[in-house]
């Protein structure tokens, strides 16, 4: 036989009643923390009163916490496939550019040059390089049908 504390005294109960009583206590502790209801708890041993305020945000908070807990930073398989197809298409479109266009795109986007540094390297005005870059990018968009 097991004992539980009820109304200021210990009462002997069966194993089954003891198990259900403990489940009820766990459920009550859960509700105290995560339900939207304000609760008043009277501790029988210490005869203290404890007020647990309502938590209006509890459902939203639990949903947000579970999203954070199970969030993934991995890229989906579909996104990976689309990205690889787009890269392959871009490579094909880059092959359609003339030598000067390809050199400018390589310098600015693949070799890490800025327009200003490439301007100094090639003795072409920065604004001229900028205009060429915009024209080339528009050409690539048309080639890729974006």
The radius of gyration over CA amounts to: 34 Å
Helix content: 55-70%
How much beta, percentage-wise?
5-15%
Count structural domains.
Answer: 2
- What is the terminal-to-terminal distance? 76 Å
Shape: rod-shaped
| Major beta-sheet overview | 2 strands, antiparallel
Mean pLDDT across the residues is 80
Order of helices and strands: EEHEEHHHHH
Strands in their spatial order, largest beta sheet? 1-2
Structural class: alpha+beta
- Uncertain spans, ≥5 residues at pLDDT below 50? none
Number of helices: 6
The oligomeric state of the chains shown is: single chain
Count the strands?
4
Report a brief summary of the structure.
The protein has about 150 residues and is of the alpha+beta class.
Description:
It is built from 6 helices and 4 strands. It has 2 domains: 2-70, no CATH class; 77-144, Arc Repressor Mutant, subunit A (Orthogonal Bundle), CATH 1.10.10. The protein is rod-shaped, with a radius of gyration of 34 Å. The N and C termini lie far apart (76 Å). The chain has helices at 15-34, 58-70, 77-94, 99-110, 115-122, 126-144; strands spanning 2-6, 9-13, 39-43, 48-52. The mean pLDDT is 80. The protein is α+β, with helices and mostly antiparallel strands. The strands form 2 sheets. A two-stranded antiparallel ribbon has the order 1-2. 62% of the residues lie in helices and 14% in strands.
């Amino acid at each position: 036989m097991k004992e539980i504390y009820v109304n200021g005294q210990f009462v002997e109960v069966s194993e089954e009643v003891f198990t259900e009583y403990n489940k009820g206590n766990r459920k009550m502790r859960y509700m105290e923390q995560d339900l939207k209801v304000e609760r008043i708890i009277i501790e029988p041993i210490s005869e203290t009163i404890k007020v647990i305020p309502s938590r209006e945000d509890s459902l939203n908070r639990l949903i947000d916490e579970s999203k954070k807990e199970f969030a993934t930073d991995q890229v989906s398989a579909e996104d990976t496939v689309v990205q690889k197809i787009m890269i392959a298409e871009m490579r094909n479109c880059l092959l359609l550019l003339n030598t000067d266009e390809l050199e400018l795109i390589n310098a600015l986007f693949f070799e890490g040059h800025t327009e200003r540094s490439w301007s100094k390297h090639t003795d072409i005005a920065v604004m001229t390089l900028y205009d060429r870059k915009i024209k080339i990018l528009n050409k690539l968009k048309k080639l890729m049908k974006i």
